[in-house]
Amino acid sequence: MATNVMQDTVISPKLSKSFRRNFIERIIEFGLLISAAFAVFITTAIVYVLVSEAIPFFEYVSVYEFLTDTVWTPNYSIKRYGILALISGTLTTTFIALLVAVPLGTITAIYLSEFASHKVRETIKPILELLVGVPTVVFGYFALMLVTPFLQTIYPDLTTFNMLGPGIVMGIMIVPYIASVSEDAMRAVPMSMREGAYAMGATRFQTAIRVIAPAATSGIVASYILAISRAVGETMIVAIAAGQQPTFTFNPVDSAATITAYIVSVALGDLEHGGIGYQSIFAAGLTLLVMTLVLNILGHWVRKKYTERY
Amino acid sequence: MAENNAKQLKDLDQIRALIQKHKKNDFIFAFIGMFIIASLTITLLILFLDLFFDGYPRLGLEFFSNYPSRKAIQAGILSAWIGSSLVLIVTFLVAVPMGIAAGVYLEEYAKKNWLSDLIEINVSNLAGVPSIIYGLLALGLFVYSFGLGQSILTAGLTLALLMLPVVIVATRESIRAIPVHIREAAFAVGATKWQVVLNHVIPYSYGGILTGVIIGMARAIGETAPVITIGALTFIAFLPPSPIGAEAPFLNFDWLQSGFTVLPIQMFNWISRPQYEFHVNAAATGAVIIVLTALMNGFAIKLRYDVRKKIKW
Q: Does residue A76 lie in a domain region?
């Protein structure tokens, strides 16, 4: 934009030939470019570090065994590395979190976008933002010290470490993400569509469910995918409250480890640099990165492909 | 005639009943929405209050001036809060200049080509990478390849990487809000591009950038997983060397290489212990972290609100 302005203007020869001035401009532009290109460097570095540390691991454990075995026992004398034992924990806690977060988040979003008055919305949105800022280690404390004991009063057989408590807390943590992204998507639907529906005699609820929600589907689905990606990568809540024993189970009342919890438990012990235990956390991390990357790309694609243009 | 009237009346009644039904649905949904938001807020409020009351007995001056100890009642968060502060200094010094520079480049300088596209994709992608992956990156790269060890410098750089996308996005958004004619006016009086950026674009987008910086710093305070992954110790009963010396040159940088712990790791360590007394310490630390992050985020939200209200081009 700005360069066009420059081209059309007659520049005083004194200025345009100032070598020093142009040189400094170039240097600064290059410096800024380096800062921006640093993002590319970080991504490359992440992939490089994870892959280069995981390659020696996969020489020890075959990729097939890694992906199909259901036992993960890095500390036993017979070491087995079946990532499914960690993925089962990750998927179970994620699923519980979504069961909580998707209905609550969606209803909150519809309410805020279509029902709430301006004043209510302006009060609740900052509260949601504050909740997004609460550190996850605090949510982990809630899960272990408050929610699990509460669940034990309903279901006495529940063990101290289980996937249900942290799953529920993770769901509560994710509600603001779904609510704010979905609300943005619904607010972006043009007013004329609401007015059209109201003119036909539709109520607010009918308009919200049959007109606004379908028109904002891409944004709402993208918010769900973002939520899954958050839940899969969430670390502290599950590391604190779900136990750190890798078990192949989908039962929410069992104790199990997620991919992230395993990485934390290994990092807390003494890391023998270059050992198989050290390399195993990079293999686990690579699996996690692939999972979240697929989700992020999917979310991006949904938003791009199904965005309605008005 | 009478029959027709009766039919019309009946239809009218049906329509009225239908309207009543839909109005009722409307009301029910509004009620459900309010109920969910209220119960969510109340649940979280109960959880927070419980945390505060659990930790309250420990929240005194001594808690901030004592080292962690094997005796829960004597344990404090001195090394943790000093560690957190020093790590944040490094994070701030790295992430803020780089983030603003990257944001300025993408908004003001970048031409529409493959390089800018590549950078954009990477920035938005980095925001979605789980924080623990940054921890693994730091473990492989900073700790072992660069040989920085499990130091304050490593932790600060790791959190800086996490914070970078937040600062970049905030910078870009607030720069985008500045109208073109401001730049045109500066160009018209002979300013170079950098002069326009330094004297006009950055000062005018200051509020928005500051909001992003504060939100990013609040996030960095609470981040636990990446700092654990680089192998931060959980029991630290010493302080890093002081950054300010008594003799010239008054500044020393030995603290960068020092071992450390941070507030959320201290809290995690106390949660993991079986004794109840340590859980009280954990709750007290949690209260400190929550107050700190809530104050920062609250200030940032207020700041953004004020900036939006004040500026009308």
A: no
pLDDT by residue for chain B (313 residues), tens only, comes to 566 777 787 888 888 898 899 889 999 999 999 999 999 989 889 989 999 998 888 888 888 888 887 777 788 888 889 889 999 999 999 999 999 999 999 999 988 888 888 888 888 888 889 999 999 999 989 888 888 888 889 999 999 999 999 999 999 999 998 999 999 999 999 888 999 999 999 998 988 899 999 999 999 999 989 999 887 776 777 777 776 666 656 666 677 777 788 899 999 988 888 888 888 999 999 999 999 999 999 999 888 888 877 766 6
B positions 73-92 inside 8 Å of A (CB): none
**B251 by DSSP, 3-state: which?**
strand
Contact between residue B228 and residue A267 where contact means Cβ atoms under 8 Å apart: yes
Residue A125 to residue A127: CA distance in whole angstroms: 5
With an 8 Å Cβ cutoff, are B128 and A296 in contact? yes
Tell me the residue range of the domain where A116 lies: 84-306
As for the ipTM of the complex, it is 0.87
CATH class of B61-310: mainly alpha
Question: Strand, helix or coil at A72?
Answer: strand
SS3 A250: coil
What is the domain-level CATH number for residue A141?
1.10.3720.10
Q: Count of domains in chain A?
A: 1
For residue A44, being part of any structural domain is answered with no
**B272 chain-A contacts, CB cut-off 8 A:** 240
Contact call for residues B174 and B205 (beta carbons, < 8 A): yes
Question: What's the gap in Å between the CA of A227 and the closest CA on chain B?
Answer: 11
Whether residue A132 is contained in a domain is answered as: yes
Q: What share of chain A is helix, strand, coil (3-state, %, to 5)?
A: 75, 0, 25
Domain boundaries, chain B: 1-58, 61-310
Q: To the nearest 5 percent, what fractions of chain B are helix, strand and coil?
A: 75, 0, 20
Assess if residue A58 is contained within a domain: no
Q: How many helices (H) and strands (E) does chain B have?
A: 13, 0
CB nearest to A267's CB, from B106, B183, B231: B231
Of A52, A131, A264, the CB nearest to B228: A264
Contact B135, B228 (CB under 8 A): yes
Distance CA A136, CA A177 (A): 14
